[in-house]
Structure prediction request, 506 residues.
Amino acid sequence: MFNGGMPFSYYARLNRAQQAVYRKSDGVTELRLPRPATLHPLVTALDEALRTEDRLTTQRATERLVRGLTDALALPPVKVEVLAARPHARWGELHGLYTAERGTMPTIQLWMRTAKQKRVVAFRTYLRTLLHEVGHHVDFALLRLADSFHTEGFYKRESSLFYQLVPDARATAAPAVPAVRALESWLSEPLDARLARLERTPGDLAHAMRGRTTGALTRRPEPAAWSATEIVCHVRDTEEQLAGWIALMLAMDDPVLPEPAPAPRWAEERQYARHHPGAAWDAFGRWRDETLTLVRGLTPAQLARTGRHRARGRVTVTDIVGVIAWHDDNHLDQLRRALRGEA
Amino acid sequence: MASIEEYAKQSVEQRMARLGRTADELSAAIKGQSPAALTKRPDEKNWAGVEVICHLRDTEEAFNGRFQMFLAMEESTLLPADPDRWAVDRQYLRCDAGEAIAAFGKRRAENLDVFRGLSPEQWKRGGTHPARGRMTFETFFSLMCYHDDVHLDQLKRALEGKA
Prediction:
């Protein structure tokens, strides 16, 4: 019998001993660092190292942060290897890997470039992957689990480390309840301001959802208004859609942009209410990092490329970034209201 | 199982019938199956039954996006999709198979309406896919028949625990 929240579907396929490990893992939702501020300079140094795009510099900065974490949590040391492009297979990309064999020091491997485009991974994605692999080390070395499963508790532990390491100024630069700005207002902002909005959103979403129960995250404030989970799924799928539009605008001259299904239809057909909020947020974050990496790499001529939108007419890539910023504002506000029980 | 090329030789009516049967065939295949059976992957890399069904649902929507472009422009560039990423991002394993079939059925009916409304000139409209080359409505019509066959077979195998 599972006594926590809704387990992931693979729980049913585990044997009894594994299910016991799963439940134990799921029951631990936070890892407290004694003095997280002492690690902030290492986080900043890692961000700067990744920006150099140099593997050895990134390796050293990663080693220092991982060592700082293992020392803070009183864990045995772990070997760190930073590698170049991620391996890619039919089933997806490998972002990081934790391996532990009897008699040898456990190893964390991290890939700093994407498989297909060979671009350097966005900092937040890299840090999150690093914490994910450290999480596996924690499972074995601190929690003394016989296996390390991806449980809801596992993701919450990863999230708790992330928010202790990323200073509040970075994670919550937006005001607590930002005003929802009109689309035209966003379209008059420079690209940097739009991108800054986009960069903050995964952190703002996580900050709003942090510490909430699964029940609170999946509760609709009223029958016709989305729950927080459904809102996160919506921004995740919209990010994919808008990234597709940008890709199309870069690949074709002035294409007609295909209209997606109305948002409520996606919610119903893709069964958002059944989705796990943490996994949805994680997927959104990956799409968002890819959007940011792509847009930041575009030339002025590429940013000015156009497509034809059914309602707005001719739009540029920069316009689409403004639409995303406006969309983020709207749905962050909606999510905060949903969590207060307001439609 | 007929190939895309063999389907291309069939009449429009035969292919319409093939595409029109799929939702019912999916329902029949999963009849009486438990949620555990539907979410059990035959091995680590191969999809469970519910993932196969969700893939058909989402692909049907993606086909419709292609068709919108074919109808709106003389020639399109077709960007490749990433179905394995969809399976993870859209959390196929947490979905209800019956609801996914119902959604697939609605999408399929809409696409069949698109095909029914095409003029002879429009059947030849299309775009270029980086891996598959030039693809038209005609190509997609046969491809969809083949795609249904492949995934119906995959679904049945998954429910038998076979990759």
